[in-house]
Amino acid sequence: MTSEIARKRVLVAGGAGFVGSHLVDALIALGATPVILDNFHTGDAAFLSHLDQPEIIEHDITRPLPASIGPVDLVYNLACPAAPKHYQADPLRTWRTSVYGTDNLAEFARVHGARMVQASTSEVYGDPLVSPQSESYTGNVSMHGIRACYDEGKRAAETLLMDMIRSYDMDIRIARIFNTYGPRMALNDGRVVPNFVRQALEGKPLTVYGHGQQTRCFCYVADTVDGLLRLGANDGLQGLVVNIGSDVEQTVYSLAEAVAALVGVPLQTQDCDMPQDDPQVRRPDLSRARDRLGWSPSTPLDSGLQQVIRYFQDDHRVKRALSV
Ligand code: NAD
Ligand code: UDP
């Protein structure tokens, strides 16, 4: 199914980021030509350094896209900081990236008659009052809270894209991505997987926020990328909004146990305050992903975590930053 994407010219906004750079690798493997657009705010040129003559455009999507990019068949919008530490550091920039940036990319897609895939997020469900969350759930977002720049920015972007579909009959699809992890996550981005892996490798206590009873489902990046490819490649999906993530729910405390066991250290934890507005539960209903994309994740948590541990142990830049 994803072979439909071969020979297509595909703009990947945010292609120097964690998920975006894996998507670029997968597109190349399928025979597509990615055009990477990024302002390197949270991305890293090193994630693209193995590519043979990549087309990279340094550009901030809050400004209209340069016409010099030329026509493309498909636009992926992954350009937005995703880690709470990053998106809360400059909330206005996050908001503008999400809303103005999505507008600029959609306009570019419209001009070129291109299909578009938007990376939305499980954060549109906020701190959900129902679980699992299906795509029809409208969510419980604290619109004035410290996460709102991201949550409401992504919600506004979804609204904008639905209006682009209604106004111009554009072929736009929306992936609501749930917690994704894997190699190339930044060691210091503050998210729970890199924090715990780093702390375990350093022999330090794992910083558990609250009592660690809040839940998440962790999806390995290769699975998330496969879902994004199917969403971009397949015909007949105009206007589809679909959850992409793992539905294996676990507490943050149980993640700490798993990481310590895999690194081979006794579990020591440090109790920390629960961040403001931290969702207490999160789990996708994947019925639609299965029905419409024929997709569900397949990587068990232990094997995915082993990949991250190996990456943190092997990458020389990461090794330099680790105090071991
Ligand atoms: P990331 O921060 O690693 O990647 C984002 C990329 O976008 C970076 O390369 C960054 O430099 C670039 N970028 C940011 N602002 C930009 C701007 N104004 N103009 C151009 N480029 C810009 O994040 P990620 O984890 O790879 O997430 C990618 C996308 O997936 C994001 O849209 C995010 O909201 C979404 N998402 C990710 C997760 C996850 O668990 N990783 C979960 C839900 C949604
Ligand atoms: N968390 C934690 N310790 C950490 C980092 C995060 O207990 O060192 C918790 C955080 O409070 C949240 C969950 O882990 O409940 C996932 O956090 P992350 O920042 O990875 O992603 P989120 O789902 O909040 O966007």
Task: Note down, in words, how this protein is organized.
Its main location: Golgi. It is a single-pass type II membrane protein. InterPro entries: Epimerase_deHydtase, NAD(P)-bd_dom_sf, UXS-like. Helices cover 38% and strands 17% of the residues. By secondary structure, it is α/β, with parallel strands linked by helices. It has a domain of 223 residues: NAD(P)-binding Rossmann-like Domain (Rossmann fold). It has a seven-stranded parallel sheet, sandwiched between helices. A two-stranded parallel sheet has the order 7-10. It has a two-stranded parallel sheet with strand order 8-13. α5 packs parallel to α7. It is globular and about 55 Å long. The termini are far apart. The model has no long low-confidence stretch (mean pLDDT 96). The structure holds nicotinamide-adenine-dinucleotide (NAD) and uridine-5'-diphosphate.
